[in-house]
Amino acid sequence: MSNIVAIVGRPNVGKSTLYNRLTETRKAIVDDFSGVTRDRHYGVSEWTDHQFTVIDTGGYVANSADIFEAAIREQVEIAIEEASVILFMVDVTTGITDLDDEIATMLRKSKKPVFVVVNKLDNNALLSDATEFYSLGLGEIYSISSMTGSGTGELLDEVVKHF
Ligand code: GDP
Ligand code: MG
């Protein structure tokens, strides 16, 4: 399949929660590889007649803090290589961290479409906090709650335009 959406970002921002929401009731593509591949989950999703593969990155086999950051960078590099669209997920409850800045720098250099997905907007009270993520320099931001699903339809409407 050629439509590939990769979800990248630092740990705990909600990548797997979104992945599960997008791929639930559909079969995961089980693979059997080692190393960095084992850190990636592939699933099938669809939106308005578009089928696509979703990649959740960052199960993170390694524990050490250094390897951990290197693993995240590696996942971002692979996403830049293989994805049609990259969802860069950040967390409104923590704001921008150093690691977010580092990932943003990598993504700004890529030619792939990147969507800044501001997660954990469970209610409108946090909506104004999300605007700080414009300073990542990656254009429009998409405010969602992976938990409730709010905002994900508007995000996917834009994502499928790139297929
Ligand atoms: P990952 O490490 O990026 O894959 O993040 P997870 O999907 O494992 O989520 C990390 C934590 O954030 C979990 O405790 C989730 O329940 C929580 N979480 C994920 N999405 C949301 C959300 O939209 N709102 C809130 N309040 N919590 C969320
Ligand atoms: Mg995860």
UniProtKB/TrEMBL annotation:
Belongs to the TRAFAC class TrmE-Era-EngA-EngB-Septin-like GTPase superfamily. EngA (Der) GTPase family. Residues 3-163 form the EngA-type G domain. It comes from the Bacteria. Associates with the 50S ribosomal subunit. The lineage of its organism: Bacteria, Pseudomonadati, Bacteroidota, Sphingobacteriia, Sphingobacteriales. GTPase that plays an essential role in the late steps of ribosome biogenesis. GTP 1 binds at residues 9-16, 56-60, 119-122. This is GTPase Der. The chain holds residues 1 to 163 of 433 of the full protein.
